[in-house]
């Protein structure tokens, strides 16, 4: 009887351990999948960061060309060095910055379109006045 009780307890413990092992295996698989997802996200965000940085550099070059300032004076160079050494922003902060700049650009485009329409209206009115004066 005593041997049967020990055997029964050993089998019970064995089943508990098998269940626990199965639980850990499932957790391990879930964590491995999460690690892969995070690695893919990290890779895509780093690619996005590189693309954003290249875009900013291209925009800066274009702005310099448009403004006719291909060379910077010493104070601007010192400012640039100081800004570069202030520390890197996180990807989230950079994404927020990009989104806010996109909103600003869209707002400026809207204002520009409105001003163009106003200009066309006033040019049309001026044209009408000129044609009426010519008819008199």
Any overview of this molecule?
- With 136 residues, this protein is mostly helical.
- The protein has two domains: 1-69; 89-136.
- The chain is 90% helix and 0% strand.
- It is rod-shaped and about 125 Å long.
- 0% of the residues are buried.
Integer count of domains: 2
Q: What's the total count of β strands?
A: 0
Q: For the terminal residues, how far apart are their CA atoms?
A: 128 Å
Radius of gyration: 34 Å
Largest sheet, in brief, is:
none
Q: What share of the residues does DSSP label as strand, in percent?
A: under 5%
Mean pLDDT: 82
Structure annotation, total helices: 3
Run of helices and strands = HHH
Tell me the structural class: mainly alpha
Shape: rod-shaped
Uncertain runs are none
- The percent of residues in helical segments reads over 70%
Topology:
Blueprint: H1 2-67, H2 74-85, H3 91-135
Compose a concise summary of this entry:
With 136 residues, the chain is mainly α. The chain has 2 domains: 1-69; 89-136. The chain is built from 3 helices and no strands.
